[in-house]
Amino acid sequence: MFLHLGGDVVVPKKDIVAILDIRAKSSGITREYLEIAGDEGFIVNISEPGKEKTYVITGNEIYLSPISCNTLKKRALE
Fold first, then answer.
1. Is the dihedral of CA 29, 13, 67, 6 positive or negative?
2. What's this model's pTM, rounded to 2 decimal places?
3. What InterPro entries does the database record attribute to this sequence (predicted)?
4. Into how many domains does the chain fold?
5. Of 40, 49, 64, 76, which has the most beta carbons under 10 Å away?
6. For the chain, where are the alpha helices, taking DSSP H only?
């Protein structure tokens, strides 16, 4: 099955490692991980600037989604 992350982006559920609220970046280790991923080009922003709500971590990329963490988690469990 697939999960719609917003915009035109759909990823296989099996590829999703984590779904994190955008506020999770306040943790030191998470912030460092995201900074490194951004520097290496692994972050894909699929939302409008300032509308990011969720990080969706897959095996290949990290998506910044405009859809809330709770909504994505509910969709993933369906």
1. positive
2. 0.86
3. RemA-like
4. 1
5. 64
6. 28-39, 69-77
